[in-house]
TrEMBL record:
<dbReference type="GO" id="GO:0004519">
    <property type="term" value="F:endonuclease activity"/>
</dbReference>
<keyword id="KW-0255">Endonuclease</keyword>
<keyword id="KW-0540">Nuclease</keyword>
<protein>
    <submittedName>
        <fullName>Type I restriction endonuclease subunit M</fullName>
    </submittedName>
</protein>
<keyword id="KW-0378">Hydrolase</keyword>
Length: 63
């Protein structure tokens, strides 16, 4: 196998990746959907960060 690849030891030549089937959704549409989901996740991240910071602030007041 290594000789067939010209004695190149780059792992990518030997592990490969599975072929992904095209589901027919255009890139622009897929990107828009993923971007929307990412924006929602950033908003949730900010909300949770504020909640944790608030809890930490309350914990400091108890000391």
């Amino acid at each position: 196998m290594i000789a067939k690849e010209g004695h190149i030891l780059t792992p990518g030549r030997y592990v490969g990746s599975e072929a992904i089937e095209d589901d027919g959704v255009p890139f622009e549409q897929r990107f828009g959907t993923l971007k929307g989901a990412l924006i929602e996740q950033f908003a949730e991240s900010s909300r949770l960060e504020a909640l944790v910071m608030s809890a930490l602030g309350a914990a400091n007041e108890d000391e």
